[in-house]
């Protein structure tokens, strides 16, 4: 007994989804084996022709499934879904499923769309997590742990994270001290990856020497390196 993935939402006479799942489990335990053996015979007999066909079909399936410039994570998962779709279509071609042609592809597309929605889109999840953490850092500490770099008198700022200034072009710029950047802004992530993500997002402003940090004159510290991050209503 083979259940159609895209029809699992249909209960097929069962009182609820749990009962249907249990019926599928019981039936597969009772009738398993015969279809699998026929499927393996087909694969072995046609292994040479399938060697080129399957990768090409997977490529076509993925190209029609994911948006351009999707993250590598999304593409890798799409390829796994594509393999399932191709296996289903081949099994249907061998008259092993009882499904209509194209049904496995339809079901797989629907499952992938559900996965994509749960994943949060076609971008890289780690990049989104990094940006969320950085924004959270400034939402929490932007008004309390940064000194005004233009202040005429010394300020008492507990656990100082750096300085702030009005941006040269727009928004407010935070000059984050190196240790704070490494230990707090990058906490839990690879430092190099964080820098690359922030630069790509236009939040981290590299120096004239193309390094991620800039050499700036800071009150009481002289010429020092700091990570200049543009953040605020105008700079986001």
Verbal overview:
The protein is an alpha+beta fold and 236 residues long. The chain folds into two domains: 33-119, no CATH class; 125-230, no CATH class. It contains eight helices and five strands; from the N terminus they run H-H-H-H-H-H-E-E-E-H-H-E-E. Helix 3 (47-63) packs across helix 4 and helix 4 (72-93) packs antiparallel against helix 5. The longest helix is centred in the middle third of the chain and has 22 residues, at 72-93. The two termini are 54 Å apart. The model is unreliable at 1-6 (pLDDT under 50).
Give the low-confidence spans. 1-6
- What is the number of strand segments? 5
Instruction: Please count the helical segments.
Output: 8
Q: Kindly report the spatial arrangement of strands forming the biggest sheet.
A: 1-2-3-5-4
- Helix-strand makeup class: alpha+beta
The number of domains: 2
Strand content: 5-15%
* Average pLDDT over all residues: 86
Shape: elongated
Q: H/E series, N to C?
A: HHHHHHEEEHHEE
User: Which range best describes the helical content: under 10%, 10-25%, 25-40%, 40-55%, 55-70% or over 70%?
Assistant: 40-55%
How far apart are the first and last residues' alpha carbons, in Å?
54 Å
Nearest-angstrom radius of gyration?
28 Å
Could you describe the largest sheet, including whether it forms a barrel? 5 strands, mixed
Write the layout of secondary structure elements.
Elements: H1 17-31, H2 34-45, H3 47-63, H4 72-93, H5 103-119, H6 125-141, E1 146-148, E2 162-166, E3 172-176, H7 178-185, H8 191-200, E4 214-218, E5 222-230
Parallel strand pairs: 1-2
Antiparallel strand pairs: 2-3, 3-5, 4-5
Helix pairs in contact: 3-4, 4-5
């Amino acid at each position: 007994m083979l259940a159609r993935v895209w029809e699992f939402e249909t209960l097929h006479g069962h009182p609820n989804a749990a009962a249907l799942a249990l019926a599928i489990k019981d039936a597969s335990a009772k009738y398993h084996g015969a279809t699998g053996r026929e499927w393996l015979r087909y694969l072995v007999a046609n292994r040479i022709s399938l060697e080129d066909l399957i990768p090409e079909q997977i490529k076509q399936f993925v190209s029609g499934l994911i948006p351009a410039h999707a993250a590598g994570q999304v593409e890798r998962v799409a390829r796994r879904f594509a393999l399932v779709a191709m296996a289903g279509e081949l099994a249907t071609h061998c008259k092993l499923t009882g499904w209509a042609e194209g049904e496995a592809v339809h079901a797989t597309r629907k499952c992938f769309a559900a996965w994509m929605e749960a994943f949060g889109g076609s971008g890289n999840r780690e990049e989104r997590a990094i940006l969320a953490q950085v924004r959270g850092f400034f939402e929490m500490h932007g008004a309390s742990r940064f000194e005004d770099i233009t202040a005429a008198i010394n300020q008492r700022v507990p656990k100082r994270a750096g300085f702030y200034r009005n941006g040269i072009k727009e928004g407010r710029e935070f000059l984050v001290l190196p240790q704070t950047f490494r230990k707090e802004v990058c906490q839990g992530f690879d430092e190099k990856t964080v820098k690359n993500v922030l630069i790509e997002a236009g939040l981290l402003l590299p120096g004239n020497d193309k390094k991620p940090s800039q050499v700036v004159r800071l009150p009481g510290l002289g010429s020092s390196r700091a990570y200049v991050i543009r953040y605020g209503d105008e700079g986001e």
